[in-house]
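Sample entry (281 residues):
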Amino acid sequence: MKTILVPTDFSANALHALKYAQELYKCERACFFVLHAYADEVYGEHLSRQPETLETIKKEKKEQTEKRLDHMLETVMGIPPNPLHNLEVIASFDSLVDAINDVVEEMNIDMVVMGTKGEASDHKTIFGSHTIEVFKYVKCPVLAVPETFEYRQPKSILFPTDYLLLYKRRELKLLDDLAGKFKSEVHCLYITDFDELSPRQEDNKRFLEGTLSRSYLHFETTPIKNRAEAIMEQLELKGADMLVMVNSRHSFFEDMLYRSTVDLLSLKLKIPFLVMQNLNR
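Predicted structure, serialized as C-alpha cells:
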C-alpha cells in the first residue's frame, strides 16, 4: 500500500494537490495523510503573550485546525468514496518541515504531494518559499503540483541527470512504479558538451537501466547552455507531463536551489515537479 503525505495550508492549491494525488493513485491501495502544521500561526501572531495565554491559543488553534481538516476531507471523499483509499488527518504543533519529516519517518511515507505555493505566496512565481524549504530539507520524494495543471496521466517524464549520483533504489522504484503503471516514457537528459561517459557515469547509467525496467527509457544529451533554459526547451519538445530531478549534496539541483537559478523554472514550469531526495533517510 502506498503512503502519501499531503501538507495543507487550506489554500486552493493545497486542495488541488490532494485531488491530483487521489487521481494519480486511484487504482491502487493508498493511505493519504493530510497534515497542517500550525506552530507558526501561534508564535507568529502571539509571541509576546504570557505562557498561559499561549497555551490557551495553542489549544484553540488545534481545535480550529482539526475542524478545518475534517471539513477538507468531506470535500474530497467522493461519492461513493474510493474503497482503495484511506484518508487521515494530522494537526501538528510544529514547523512545516519538521512536521513533515516526523510524519515521513513515523508513517514510512513514500511521497509528499503538495501545492507549489500557498495562499500568501508571491503570485509572480510558481514555487512559494515553503515549497522551496520542503524541496531542500524534507527527506522524502516531494511532488509539487501547480494549481493550474489539469490532471493527465504522466505519459512523458523528463529526468535531467549527470549520471554522477549513486541513486537510491527505493526512490527510483517510486518513479519506476509510476512509469510502469502508466506505460510512460522516461527521458534521461544529460546536459553536456562531451561524448563519452566516465566509468562511474557508465555504472550509474546501467543502474538506471536496471532499476527503471518498467518504463520506456530513453537516454539523450543536449549541449551545455543555461541549464534551466535547456530543461524548459526539452519539456516543450517532449510534451512532458512531469519533471523529475534529484536533490543531493553538490548536485545540479542543489546548485539551482541555493543560487536561485530555480527562479527561471519557477516562472515557467506548468507541470508537476517530482524532487527525489538522495539524502540520508
